[in-house]
Amino acid sequence: MGSALSAATSSVNPAEMTAASKLARALIKDNAVMVFSKSYCPFCQHAKSALKENKIAFEAIELDQRKDGGAIQDALQTITGQRTVPNIFANGYHIGGCDDTLAALKSKEFQKKLNNTTKGPFAVETSSDVSKPSTSTEPAAASTDKAQL
């Protein structure tokens, strides 16, 4: 009998996992606020609404609308220990999910991390980040959404 964790993870080959990890790290590094989301998730919608209400611009990627979404989600679990969405980063700092984001916004910790002149550990280029993968070949439905202030 398999564990709940193994049942929840998708099976991706090592090349897909490497590409997904590089993409996730590049998105985190290149965006002040990065939200990994699923379009149908109410917690994702709530967290993104809270960011908008606080006039915080963010980049969102809807994992359910991408061919490589499962691989990205697996990579995020490896990178952060969190597989659930939303999975939110500010200035390279891992904030966490919806409840973590709401708490960080309320306590102003989110804004402190966002305005910190020192980038967080997830915004630092690692030796595995040899080149930034291109996302230009994704279909329009898989593109990222830019929240406007």
UniProtKB/TrEMBL annotation:
GO BP of this protein: cellular response to oxidative stress
Start-end of Polar residues biased regions: 116-138
A GO term, aspect molecular function: glutathione-disulfide reductase (NADPH) activity
One GO term describing the cellular component: Golgi lumen
Keyword Disulfide bond attributed: yes
Sorted UniProt keywords: Disulfide bond, Electron transport, Redox-active center, Transport
Pfam families in UniProt: Glutaredoxin
CDD domains, per the entry: GRX_GRXh_1_2_like
InterPro entries, per the entry: GLR_AS, Glutaredoxin, Glutaredoxin_euk/vir, Glutaredoxin_subgr, Thioredoxin-like_sf
Protein name: Glutaredoxin
Lineage: Eukaryota, Fungi, Fungi incertae sedis, Zoopagomycota, Kickxellomycotina
